[in-house]
Amino acid sequence: MNGALLTADHVSKVFYTPGEDVSAVRDASCTVPPAARIALLGPSGSGKSTLLQLLGGLDIPTSGTVTWPAFGPDVRPRNLAFVFQNQTLIPALSVLENVELPLQLQGASNSDARERARAALQRLGLRALSDKLPEELSGGQAQRVAFARALVGEPRLILADEPTGQLDHHTANEFFDAVLPWIEERGSAIVLATHDRTVGERMSERWTMRFGVLEVPG
Description:
The chain is α/β, with parallel strands linked by helices and 218 residues long. It has one domain: Rossmann fold. It is 31% helix and 25% strand. Strand 6 (157-161), helix 5 (169-186) and strand 7 form a beta-alpha-beta unit. It starts with 5 loop residues before the first strand and ends with a strand.
């Protein structure tokens, strides 16, 4: 597809262990176009997290290839953002400082980074948490702050691994009421791994993982 943000071609990932080799992803092929809204559905252990890591270049496939045609030869943090399932906030930094960090790494001035970080937290209803440390947050709050940190750099592609896994359905929907318009305004694409079909229904396209096999609707 012309202008694709990423393309996976017959990608597999095998984890070799002394007792048994585990095929986490089996011969997966897919394309993510600009501005896509994709839910990657499937139960825990189906291979969703492994596939996202392969798509984001965080892991190397055992076979097959992943390319990012729209980004050129390299994928840079300002183009692609990853929201992990587990806590990834830096413990020594406040919420505001965590959200500022990617902007500072991209070369933004301290004042610009702070202003944009505050706006991002305000947009997601997190401004009151600005001065808190990660240890003072609930699991759901930490996930939302991590999403703000990913979005603040205005990436073209967001890969999110169970970002609402610690939120109830009502709170998760409120969160996406704020997140999705922001993503749409910027024309970003998102691939969101979730086992929650209510969350999946918020996306315009749904892929499914079963036992490491990716099913993409034709």
